[in-house]
Specification:
Pfam families: PBP5_C (PF07943), Peptidase_S11 (PF00768)
Strand order of the largest sheet: 14-15-16-12-11-17
Function: Removes C-terminal D-alanyl residues from sugar-peptide cell wall precursors.
Shape: globular
Distance between the termini: 52 Å
InterPro entries: Beta-lactam/transpept-like, Peniciliin-bd_prot_C_sf, Peptidase_S11, Peptidase_S11_C, Peptidase_S11_C_sf, Peptidase_S11_N
Number of strands: 17
Radius of gyration: 26 Å
Structural class: alpha+beta
Protein name: serine-type D-Ala-D-Ala carboxypeptidase
Domain Peptidase S11 D-Ala-D-Ala carboxypeptidase A C-terminal: 286-352
Length: 380
């Protein structure tokens, strides 16, 4: 009997080890890690996410944000000798050449060009020191108070640091800019520089982010490495209305760890319906007629923890609305909030035709929708 029990225990132990992950679970080699829900801002996972660390070329996320805030894509930049000779990873730009801000931004993010970073900084602020100060100021406006920049490219410098949590929030804000999203999700790009003699030279840039094309739904964002900062990576992925941003700083297994972290986030996602297509949100009453104002489409919020109980819908109906109305005619918007932050917007439209109004008409709430939201807020 004793032998049989031992055998059973041995089999159970063997099964447990067989079921365990082969190597690691959730960024266990990183000095700092964080995964954030890009829609709601909810932190899904973090490990030492408040530790101040150097971030190498993931610095360029904030560089790009600062450039997009302070310049136009078609502006022309003349490349200085200082920019062209910047050390480290390169966009291969030439002193005296002219390039658009747009092309330099692709060289900055795809090729991780330190030279492009300096050229853009000089264009926006005149020099890299003032530009770095602007980067820091913008980061603090976002709420990333454990972040400071000393240069636009991420080369080692005293006082140049961030945290995994700050970098996730910076990236979350950055990804709301469509131009930023377009650049960091691009896998290859052909830029052009006009040399001092008028010759036009093409430059081919390839994105260093291996998750693009290899991880389902990956849409960016930036790699980084220096000897002191180690391997740094910020990634973003979206699936079925959910979007997550993952950050690791000083990691030994960043590609695999990001896959694990993003898998963890997506597997824990639940979609909470904020408004359904055709849902009545208001009534227009005129004489004997009643026209429902309805949601033109549905909207659901991806949540992981308790955020699902903190979703509200604000109905904004135009002050100019007055019958007659045609079915499907836009009459306002529904703004969806989660935790006080707007996460979506849906058109409100007339649910039916309505003839010209009587001298007096009124807009009133939809009783059943109001009751449903009250019950949901109480019971979840």
């Amino acid at each position: 009997m004793k032998i049989k029990i031992t055998a059973v225990l041995a089999a159970a132990v063997a099964a447990a080890f067989a079921a365990a992950p082969a190597a690691f679970a959730y960024a266990d080699t990183a000095a700092g890690a964080c995964v954030v829900n890009a829609v709601t801002g909810e932190i899904v996972f973090e490990r030492d996410s408040g530790t101040r660390l150097p971030m190498a070329s993931t610095t360029k996320i904030m560089t790009l944000v600062t450039v997009l805030e302070n310049s136009e894509p078609d502006e022309v930049v003349t490349i200085s000798a200082e920019a062209a000779s910047a050390e480290g990873s390169s966009a291969y730009i030439s002193a005296g050449a002219r390039m658009t801000v747009r092309d330099l931004c692709y060289g900055l993010m795809l090729n991780s060009g330190n030279d492009a970073a300096v050229a853009l900084a000089e264009h926006v602020s005149g020099n890299t020191d003032d530009f770095a100060a602007e980067m820091t100021a913008l980061a603090h406006e976002i709420g990333a108070f454990d972040t400071a920049f000393k240069n636009p490219n991420g080369l080692n410098a005293e006082g140049h640091y961030t945290t995994a949590r700050d970098l996730a929030e910076i990236t979350r804000c950055a990804m709301k800019n469509e131009e930023f999203r377009e650049i960091v999700s691009t896998r290859s790009y052909t830029a052009a520089e006009t040399l001092a003699d008028g010759t036009v030279k093409q430059l081919e840039y390839i994105n260093h982010n291996k998750l693009l094309g290899s991880y389902d739904g990956c849409i960016g964002v930036k790699t980084g490495y220096t000897e002191s900062a180690g391997r740094c990576l910020v990634s973003a992925a979206e699936r079925g209305g959910a979007e997550y941003i993952a950050v690791t700083l000083h990691s030994k297994n960043d590609w695999a760890e990001h896959r694990e972290m993003l898998d963890l986030a997506f597997s824990g996602t639940r979609m909470v319906e904020a408004v359904s297509e055709g849902e009545c949100v208001r009534h227009i009453v005129s004489g004997g007629e009643d026209c429902e104002i309805v949601a033109a489409e549905g909207f659901s919020v991806p949540v992981n923890g308790d955020k699902g109980a903190d979703i509200t819908v604000k109905v904004e109906v135009s002050d100019d609305i007055a019958p007659p109305l045609n079915k499907g005619e836009k009459v306002g918007v529904l703004r969806i909030y989660c935790g006080g932050e707007q996460v979506g917007c849906v058109d409100a439209e007339a649910g039916s035709d309505m003839a010209a109004a009587e001298p007096e008409y009124r807009i009133k709430p939809c009783f059943f929708t109001t009751l449903k939201r009250m019950i949901k807020s109480i019971f979840g």
